[in-house]
Predict the structure.
Amino acid sequence: MFISSENSPPCFKDFTLVMPAVAVGNVGQLSVDLILSTLNMSRVGYMHTDCLIPMTGNNPYATSNENAEELHTPAEVYTAAELKLAVLQIRAPIIQSKSKKFRQLLVSWIKSSGFSRAVVLSSSQAYQRDDQQMKGIPLRYLVTPSLLKDSEDALKELSWREMERVSAYPGLTDANTEPRLYVPGGGITKGLYTDSCAEDVPLAVLILFCSEGDNIPDAFTLVNHLNDWLHLLDDPSQKPNKWKIPTSWNLLFGSGIPPALF
Amino acid sequence: MATFFGEVLSVYSRAVEEDEEEVDENEEDAEILRELEEKREVHLHWSPEVSESLKSGNKLPCSDFILAVGHNAARFLSVYALTSENWDALGRASVWNERSGGVASEESTCVFYRPKDNPAVLICQVTCYLAEDQLFQWTEKVFDCLQLRQLNVTVLSESSVSEFKTADYLSSSSAPFLRSLHSAAFSGKPVCKSLEQPNIVTGLQAAVLNHCEVHRIPSIVYQCYSDVIGPDSVTMETFKPTLTKLGKSIKLDPSPSADILRKIVRTTNIQSNLYI
């Protein structure tokens, strides 16, 4: 559950929440890292839960020696009050047997905090796309009915495509198999979306098709798309957008190589 | 995914497991899952006086909680602190998971000790394996028994040096070495360097530190990175700098006799002579 790190609990009323889904390539989480690092957001609380694998470390967004030694936990909430923006970052895998519990925790926290909308940054396995999904940009969106009215115009202007429903058994023409929502590699994305529809939560999901590998370019792609909609950076006309890479992204693929190896 | 040579390989994601789709659970499945979850629960077994005290609503008075996670950390405390007969065994934790054998082995334990002359200090040695889903529970259950006012927590833990990420290649002479991580409420001075980015700490030490951070308890983790897989005297001695801090709360033996060291650190087992 949410525990404030400040002396008084923060107020999230009418804020926009951006959060990642732990999904293929960790793209949502990397995108959130870019947002937190660039906008220099301050932490206001922790999501203290048994649903995530414990991990801890020093400040991943350290800019100097002064703020380097600050402990951070697997799930934390940051805000930028001037943008009416709150960001939840999730840094650890969700314990498999607790994914339903975690989804419920998130949905009830979003509702009780009074966010005006929540945006989930997610990804899905590129190799499992069907023919339709291989067309156009690899971004798809989902939006719950309660957010549809407010965001319809913006989404139309961006010409984004809604995540297609796919048939469960491609190739089989059995009439019983209705096309359904399928987000392979998306972690709790689909569950979170369906729970939010059921509970009338204004939630949107941005899904990027990608594969495992060096997902830094995917993170930039996703966060730029998000910026096209939410205009988080000051100067949207400035191309390319200046996102700041955090120090925690060093050595993503291992330590320095022993010189004697060659 | 098809490869260049025409074979088809399964693609695995680092982040998520395949098959996140929820299977419809029937009553029987739910019952089995419930039983499994119950079996995986962490149980704390305290001595009779402690149990009585806890039952009547009094938490264990504790100003210093010293936790050793792993064989080297546990042996360090055994050699430098627990060798005198000055300690009461206060309780233990029992845990069942996929790695615990049928019979609880002598090697893998989780025991709590308290010095006879200073009941406000608690030492715990954890050498058993705690699964990912049991770490949070262990931490909550243990801290639930402790009086949190003026509590200070010190954790000694270990990890393989292969887990340590650094831009400059670490030659074998640099291991073992210590790094520290502390909660915001900790006001002391660590005895070694702070853990540099992009390194993180996982396991029980992380669960305890998270708990302390969130509940504003001063705490510090000293993690030893070693290039030796098993228990080892050099690794064990790397924790020595922490004696200066620990010595403030518990009576320590700064130079244990060679006999004690020999007893505690066993030589390589015969059955693992495969690579001799």
User: Anything to note?
Assistant: DSSP finds five helices and ten strands in chain A. The CA atoms of residues 18 and 119 of chain A lie 5 Å apart.
